[in-house]
Design a protein that fits this description.
Blueprint (H helix, E strand, L loop, with lengths): L15 E4 L3 H12 L4 E4 L48 H14 L6 E2 L4 E6 L6 E5 L3 E4 L1 E4 L6 E2 L6 E3 L2 E4 L13 E5 L3 H13 L2 E5 L10 E2 L2 E2 L8 H15 L25 H7 L4 E3 L2 E6 L1 E4 L4 E3 L2 E4 L3 E2 L11 E3 L2 E3 L11 E3 L4 E2 L4 H20 L1 H13 L19 E2 L1 H15 L21 H4 L3
Helix pairs in contact: 1-6, 6-7
Amino acid sequence: MSTNIPLVPPSETHPVVIVGAGPSGLAAARALLTRGIPYVHLERHVDVGGIWDLDNPGTPMYQSAHFISSRDKSGFFDTPMPSRFGDYPSRAEILEYTRGFAEAYGLRKRIRFGTAVTGIRQDETTGVWTVSTDSSDLEASAVICCTGVTWDPKLPEVPGDFAGEIRHSVTYVAPEEFAGKRVLVVGLGNSGADIACDAAANASRAFISTRRGYHFVPKHLFGKPADTTEHLPIWLERLLYRVFAPIVIGDVRRWGLPRPEHRLFESHPLINTQLLHYLQHGDITAKPGIGRFEGGEVVFTDGTREAVDLVMFATGYDMSIPYLPHEYLDWVGGRPKMYLNAFAPRPGLFGLSYIEVNSSAYTLFDRIAHLVAEHLSDIRTDPARAARLRHIVATETPDLSGGIRFVGSDRHATYVEVRAFRRELRRLASRMGWDDLEPGRFATYIHADARADARTAVAP
């Protein structure tokens, strides 16, 4: 890839283009707006909210979904989630909160709804981007991709022919879909566990299939959300887990689940003890991986078989960006490889939602958006400092693992540990001479035309 592509200063003629109006797109919009950086915000749907809006075509969201990070550890800077929300907010509450944020900062009126981006391409001589939509083209100084990580489902190939119905969890919406059916949910991520609980409560017979074991973490410890221990060092969190897991969780092998072969945090833990409740009561049966299909039966790797009407694969997603030429990014395991998961090797290209992390993403989106906006501001006012960042992006690969040896799967190819990630963000801000973004600091940046009463729009 050419390193001689020039940086283009954002201007009214060549604004920054933000693609997507989910939480990361809104964070990017606020960061640009507060600095007076011209931008155009494009969203294919008719409203803000991203995946949390069930009416958004292609969303993987389902009615029973909740945040897996707690209310007080989530949310945008300066706009805490309302105390009237549950400890782990529901899908509807998160959508309400996200839309309230857009209203609070005057972001909605600047979004071009119903405008799908069909392609983007950069002139490598001038550095100018052409962004094509389903209605017109526009030129841009930079593009911030904020279209998320859960739109391109991964469906594994299984030998044999199946007489029943095969679906990916991206198509699942409501528990009523399981009524009267024998249902097998494949995959034990947090969404898979949620959907398995819906199947346990609504299907005539329910099974869950997983190839590996996972650590279960209770949602509450001592009456408080479990992620309140996030400020502790990892070794101490692991010690607490070793002490409390045998008491609170027990040995999951008793209910047919495999014992995890990795240490806590080397893969995502399951914040869902409700599944254990259904396993303990026989409402769902744990099975190993699928070996093959035979007519209306599923044959598992241990040789057992079950008659099944519906196989629901909760087997994850690729982080594809369909409107972006594939060669514009380096890809590892279906994940785009970018500096700090945000700064692409190609000048003027950024991603703000392509991250897997063991914490809430909303506050991270704000922090990353802040640094991206600082860099875009530098292109206008301090070209030398902007060039220095481009050199860092091209030559450095910081360790974001926090010393954790993540499971060697595609999903974990770009996984980051939140404390290590925050340290690197602060370190970059310090090296570049930027102000680091902490809670309560955004108000000092907001221009007069962007001021709004966020706490009124998202009332506690």
